[in-house]
What we know:
By secondary structure, this protein is of the alpha/beta class. Helix content is 57%, strand content 9%. It folds into three domains: 3-50, no CATH class; 64-140, Methionine synthase domain (Methyltransferase, Methionine Synthase (B12-binding Domains), Chain A, domain 1); 151-253, Rossmann fold (3-Layer(aba) Sandwich), CATH 3.40.50.280. The chain has a four-stranded parallel sheet with strand order 4-3-5-6, sandwiched between helices. A two-stranded antiparallel sheet has the order 1-2. The longest helix is centred in the middle third of the chain and has 21 residues, at 97-117. The mean pLDDT is 93. The structure holds cobalamin (B12). The site of cobalamin has 39 residues, from α6, α7, α8, β6 and α11.
Amino acid sequence: MDLKTAAARLGVHYQTAYRWVREGSLSAMKIGPTYEVDPYEIERLLRQRSVPVPPPMRSRVRSWDMHLLRLYDALISGDERMARQVVERLRDGGQETVEICERLVTPALRRIGDAWAEGHVSLVEEHRASAMCTRLLAGISVHPRGRPRGVAVVTTVPGEAHELPGMMASMALRADRWQVHHLGTQVPYDQLAALVRRERATLVVLSVTHTRVQRDALHCADRVRRELGVRALTGRPGATLTDLIHGAKQAAAA
Ligand code: B12
């Protein structure tokens, strides 16, 4: 049978069946310009797909505090290999990226901020640690397959130079199947609006870490809603990624 019929039998889109052929998970023979699939191959794949796939093993973390301490020490001493090991071991043990952010990276950054404010950590040590966190987060970011819930734009308003919370917000949304345009920090309203229109975004997320920009962020979100007719969420220090995911889901459902 041809690939179109095979796709229909398998209950998937033609493009999906075509991708499977290209990847080698569905055997097909190319005859002229078309692919021919053996009906037995369809039966084999249907049988294979009907066997439930067990969820990934997730080992229990006995003490997040211990991992936090190790990560904090690694970040402060500039030991990137150790920091990567702490984070990747947890990831390989099945911990979700959002959980690693919330229970490990965010508390470590807060601790660094407190130590910096008290004069125990220097500016360069803090800069080095932040740069390490950026790379660690990029390394554990996930992009699950599937139809996106919507298109989100993540950034901060001018005056907000803290980029890690926005990065974590983008990671959390991507892990929850949003298509994300991550714009880094400090994007002026007009340019944000142009991109939102061009990409037909359905959600704008403004991260806030520096309390001084909270009002500007709320004002910007208000303009996004009124002028662009697009939902907008603003963060605040201490707000969680779980709050964000929840708010984004509500926005998508409304
Ligand atoms: C690293 C850092 C910097 C770096 C940032 C580098 C980088 N690449 O990002 C640099 C050096 C640039 C910097 C600069 C400054 N910083 Co600074 N910085 C920090 C530090 C140590 C970590 C920042 C961070 O990532 N925190 C974010 C996480 C860890 O916490 P969070 O805010 O709760 O984030 C969560 C939520 O935001 C949520 N989230 C994200 N998006 C969204 C969206 C929605 C809708 C929702 C619901 C949730 C959500 O997810 C995050 C993760 O869980 C903090 C310490 C701290 N306590 O945060 C200080 C801190 C934020 N900085 C501070 C200060 C004072 C400054 C400066 C003014 C210093 C100066 N004199 O120049 C400047 C301001 C720059 C500016 N204009 O923005 C203060 C802020 C105090 C205040 N009242 O706001 C802090 C708290 C340090 C302190 N203890 O005093 N900083």
